Amino acid sequence: MSYVSIDTESFYCSVCARRHLLALGCVFNCTQQRYVWYVARQNCVIDKTSQKIHGIANCQFGFDISHVLQSFDLLLEQNCVTRLVAHDVCSDLSLLLHECGICDQKNLLSKLCRMEHICTKLETFKKSHRPGSSVKWPSLHDAYCTAEGLVPYYAHDPVTDAEVCAFVFEYLTNRDKKKHGS
Hints:
The chain is of the alpha/beta class. It is built from seven helices and five strands; from the N terminus they run E-E-E-H-H-E-H-H-E-H-H-H. The protein has helices at residues 48-54, 65-78, 89-102, 106-114, 120-128, 140-148, 158-179; strands at residues 3-13, 18-28, 34-38, 83-86, 116-119. A five-stranded mixed sheet has the order 3-2-1-4-5, sandwiched between helices. The chain is globular, with a radius of gyration of 17 Å.
């Protein structure tokens, strides 16, 4: 099963009043290749909250968004990827699909829609939630601590988060295999 684990970083621009992709990190399980692209955005202002979270105040440097999407598309093709894994797959996927639509990247848009989508946040919740207890969605840090046995994880960059997400997915997958005797 070939998959890519991704993490996106985004920001809200008050100038154009929408979310933008700031960075895309990914890890391909079949090759263990890791990639991160930072996106250059002209005439955009990164909101203060995103500056604090990502530590980036200026988005004038990086790659053009079309280049990022085309590079990602090519890597998906080269690695024969059929699954997309993300900690919050709905958020990451919606951002990528939105950028694909704006940049007229129909091939990538179609490819992303056809893939199986796996959300480690949801899978971790389903495996750890006890009926009757309060609902709290696990952070990527929570999921990693569950998988690794309380080893702290505090990074917040897209390629590290994608790598941690892949680790959590592998942990959940292997745990299920052991449970069912595979």
